[in-house]
Design brief:
Elements: E1 3-6, E2 15-23, H1 32-37, E3 40-47, H2 64-77, E4 81-85, E5 93-95
Parallel strand pairs: 1-4
Antiparallel strand pairs: 2-3, 4-5
């Protein structure tokens, strides 16, 4: 399923963290809720790009760090990112 993303807030941060999964021991038997109670979140940190994306009109105009972030989110989620909103206005959307 295609996904859209608004990430202008990452323009100004040093790094951002994404929950990428959960892990638990070998038991894994019983009710799902029992397993989830023993899970620990797994996070991955990404460097921020500390530069504005608001002028970007296509994927190649985004900074390398922004492109890496988007590609990794697509890989982790299994979704094809079809649009990226660089600001709130409709014309400030990059269609991929």
């Amino acid at each position: 399923m295609p996904a859209g993303l608004r990430f202008g807030y990452v323009d100004v941060v040093m790094a951002t963290t994404v929950l990428v999964g959960a892990q638990w021991g070998d038991e894994g038997k019983g009710k799902v809720i029992d397993v989830l109670e023993r899970c620990s979140p797994v996070y991955q940190e990404f460097d921020g790009w500390q530069m504005s994306t608001k002028q970007a009109q296509d994927f190649d105009q985004l900074s390398k760090r922004a492109r890496v972030y988007l590609q990794k989110l697509a890989q982790l989620s299994g979704a094809k990112i079809s649009l990226v909103s660089v600001r709130a206005r409709r014309e400030e959307t990059i269609f991929l």
